[in-house]
Amino acid sequence: GLKFVSKNRRERVVAIADELSHTEEYDIITLQELWVYTDFEYVRESVAKYLPYAKFFYSGALGAGLAILSRFPIVATEIQPYSLNGAPIDVAGGDWFVGKAAASVIILHPILKEVQVFNTHLYAKGGEDGPEHNRAHRLVNAWEFAKLARRAAELGRYVIAAGDFNSIPTTLPMTVIREHADLKDSWLVTHPFSNTPSDATPSPQEAIDDFGVTADSPINSYSAGKGLDATARRFCGKRLDYIFYRQPHSYNSAELPVLHCKESRVMFTHEVPGTPFSYSDHFGLKSVLQIQTPGALPSSSDAVFPPESQTAAWSTQSSEPSEISQACITKMTQALSSCYRFSKSRAQKELALFVLCLMLLITIAVASTWFPYPWLNPIFIIFAVFLTWLGTTMLYEGYVYGQWECNALMNVVEELEVYAQGLELQSSRYQ
Fold first, then answer.
1. For residues 111 and 294, what is the distance between their CA atoms, to the nearest angstrom?
2. In 3-state terms, the chain is what percent helix, strand and coil (to 5)?
3. pLDDT tens string 10-34
């Protein structure tokens, strides 16, 4: 939804708002890439009759693009920009300028009490193939997101986390999120065999219905005819969008209601009525979370979900927190260390280019006083302006951003090393 850039932006925003306004089945809606505040206002006003609470989040130069709408009162909000979001020189990608982040609200639910709802959009570039350090920035995003979700549960809150994670389910960033934050994937709960490799390529509709494909689908007008990678071609798209949930970490878990996903499906797969384009380049995802109470059913005055979601079913919850595996920590550390070495090398080359630009500028300034042809002066001026821009950019990229990236990578590497040592100490203490 970038202004002046995104195709059919206004028509799509109106269509999405219209679709959402004609149903009251949603309790929470999370939106990504909603950059323009007036677009958010339009959506908010369209659904205000049944989702009266909303928050638009700000981050970076262009905003986070994240918004949350809720049926339940919002009592606190927070946004945590990720420490790495690509490079400022990658203008076409734009991740650095928008300041991708983990946004959250705390809602007050009549049965669950405090629920922290996260909405995020992870770094896009890197794909799934090639060395793991290609996805170092996304790995840092995943680690920082997992820490936030874990901390929310440790504070006694239920957690719901949704967004565009730009990662297929089998990748390392998703492993980090599942293991460290102990989040349940609502799609896998309702489609337990969707991660099982298949010898046959599914049809586009089967990929959506059975495998939860939300992006790069041939059915989507913004993906059709687009050059896709091998994974997207093999599975007729990718599952990049998720809704996670988990219980609060509590030693009295037997007394708490339990969340369980009873339905999850891909939405907004059709084209906007009367147009040849889709609602978005990603489909929507809907999950229905059932509240299972350990005791008697809530009274009718407390019921906020449909009657079928108020059940007396009960399942015990482990009080032991989930821990990220040593294999995952090792793989992450290796990837981030490789990226650190690559970043140092790139920064040195950029600083060398800055020195070269500076030397050329000095040469031009000296030589121009001796050059006998005045008509060449405008060419020298234009060349000098270009060198000035290039040199300044390389100085910023090589020194400021280079140090920034290296420091952020080293922070996470050292966090992982300390965390691994802590797990070893705890393990030896209880042996």
1. 12
2. 45, 20, 40
3. 999 999 999 999 888 899 999 999 9
Give me the half-sphere count of Cα atoms (radius 13 Å) on the Cβ side of residue 329.
17
Rounded to whole angstroms, the Cα distance separating 163 from 120 reads 5
For β-strands 158-164 and 113-121, DSSP reports them as parallel
Q: Which residue type, as a one-letter code, is found at position 97?
A: F
Rounded-to-integer distance, Cα 361 and Cα 96, Å:
30
> What CA–CA distance (Å, rounded) separates 117 from 30?
9
Contact 40, 32 (CB under 8 A): no
pTM of the model: 0.89
DSSP sequence for 150-171: HHHHHTT-EEEEEEE--S-TTS
Paired with 116 in beta bridges are: 106, 159
Laid out side by side, the sheet with 53-56 consists of 28-31, 67-70, 53-56
Amino acid at 393: T
Contact at 8 Å (CB) between 347 and 393? no
CA neighbor of 80 nearest in space, from 38, 24, 122, 41: 122
Scan for tokens 């089945």, then name that residue. Answer: 25
Asked whether the beta carbons of 85 and 95 are under 8 A apart, the reply is yes
Q: How far apart are the first and last CA of the chain?
A: 54
Low-confidence stretches of the chain (pLDDT < 70) are 196-199, 251, 253, 295-321, 371-373, 375-376, 429-431
- The long-range contacts involving 49-53, CB below 8 angstroms and separated by at least 24 positions, are 49/21, 50/24, 50/26, 51/26, 51/27, 53/107
